[in-house]
Design brief:
This protein is mainly β and 313 residues long. Helix content is 4%, strand content 27%. The radius of gyration is 44 Å and the shape is elongated.
């Protein structure tokens, strides 16, 4: 056994490939059988190189590398980041996320309460313009200007509710609540409305729109007809309902030809009262009631601005 190992070692040193018995392995034309000389022949001599050489080498006949030689690692896929932030990934990418864009084609074109859509290619954001008295309170492009300023409603003296359309924002077109006597029980008010706000441009423009607050005031007109032995005490309460910014509103009652009464700011509960005694207005007076969002609360504080006005004349 030792001699066989020595012979094998000698054969290897001589540059020959030998089997464990010391017999040289030669490339022959047979199927790798042991020949007359006792050597084991291998397949793939002159038969076209059917043997499988190691990857990256030629076969026994000097042919091309076999299929096992894959060369450098292949590039996987085609969506590799090119380093260009404006480049859209390829390979089945669904495009920019909602509200993001590389061009106007990436932005939704049909949205609630929206009069225009553009793509700001510098910030890669879709920009919407709200149609008139519609507001993007939540700041989400996908649902457009989702809050339409609702028509106010009035239910005086605990009676039936009347819808008062449209919403009015100026004294010249103020929503008329009607005429009431000075008897408290006959002049009880229950008015529901809103002063929504946002950071969007509005087209058509909203009358009396305050760009700082991102809102327009809601204005009402009421007539105090008065009566015999009346106190003519104007008392009103503004209550914001579910506001995200309850301290951002004011209430003003202006008597035409008389005094103006103001609650400058709602409290943390959203309440803003105007309390007056006898003679706060004259019989037959017209009184403008205005609910506004304060300039100190900017477009960074959007809100649906829902409110209720109660009180009596």
């Amino acid at each position: 056994m030792l001699s066989a190992l020595v012979i094998a070692a000698v054969g290897a040193c001589a540059g020959q490939v030998v089997d464990p018995d010391g017999n040289p392995i030669v490339a022959g034309d047979d199927a790798g059988t042991k020949g007359d000389s006792g050597a084991i022949t291998s397949s793939g001599g002159d038969d076209g190189g059917t043997g499988t050489p190691p990857p990256g080498t030629t076969d026994g006949d000097g042919g091309s590398p076999t299929i096992l030689d894959s060369g450098p690692p292949a590039t996987i896929g085609s969506g590799i980041d090119s380093g260009d932030p404006d480049a859209a990934p390829s390979g089945g990418d669904a495009g920019p996320a909602p509200g993001e864009c590389n061009s106007l084609a990436d932005c939704p074109q049909t949205l609630t309460g929206v009069s225009g859509v553009t793509c700001d290619t510098a910030s890669h954001t879709c920009v919407i313009t709200c149609s008139g008295d519609n507001y993007d309170v939540n700041g989400v492009v996908a649902d457009g200007c989702e809050v339409a300023n609702p028509c106010p409603t009035s239910a005086p003296n605990g009676g039936g509710t009347t819808q008062l359309c449209p919403v009015e924002h100026a004294q010249s077109t103020a929503t008329n609540l009607g005429s009431f006597s000075c008897t408290d029980s006959d002049s009880e008010q229950d008015v529901i409305g809103a002063v929504p706000s946002d950071a969007r441009t509005h087209n058509p423009a909203v009358v009396a729109f305050d760009g700082t607050a991102g809102a327009a005031p809601t204005v009402f007109l009421i007539n105090g007809s008065g009566g015999t032995f009346c106190e003519d005490d104007l008392n009103l309460n503004l209550q914001m309902n579910g506001s995200a910014h309850p301290t951002c509103y004011s209430l003003v009652a202006q008597v035409v030809g008389g005094s103006t009464y103001t609650c400058a700011q709602t409290d943390p509960t959203g309440l803003c009262p105007i309390a007056n005694g006898s003679g706060s207005y004259s019989d037959g007076s017209n009184i403008y009631i205005t609910v506004s969002k304060l300039d100190s609360c900017t477009t960074t504080e959007p809100d649906d601005g829902a409110f209720t006005i109660t009180g009596h004349l």
